[in-house]
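Duplicate of #3305? Posting structure anyway:
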């Protein structure tokens, strides 16, 4: 059971990194398309919304990791009580 909690924890850490990478990648590459230069004003609001959504996703990952960690600690506590 401990191995499974560790696996979930590590997967969530990996997911955090991928969300960060995606945020940076899209921010760097989205504005390079010449066709989008006429949309500069809307790009700013798009980037703000995208950043907020990525922050929310990252917060959800962190919250899930905290819950999994607590579950793991609870399971360890129950095993040691037995």
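Output from current build:
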């Amino acid at each position: 059971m401990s191995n499974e909690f560790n696996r979930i924890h590590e997967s969530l850490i990996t997911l955090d990194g991928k969300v960060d990478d995606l945020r940076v990648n899209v921010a760097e590459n989205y504005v390079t398309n010449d066709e989008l230069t006429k949309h500069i004003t809307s790009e700013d609001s798009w980037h703000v919304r995208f950043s907020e959504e990525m922050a929310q996703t990252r917060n959800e990952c962190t919250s899930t990791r905290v819950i999994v960690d607590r579950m793991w600690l609870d399971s360890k506590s129950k095993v040691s009580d037995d």
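Confirmed duplicate; merging threads. Residues 40-81 form the longest helix (42 residues). The mean pLDDT is 84.
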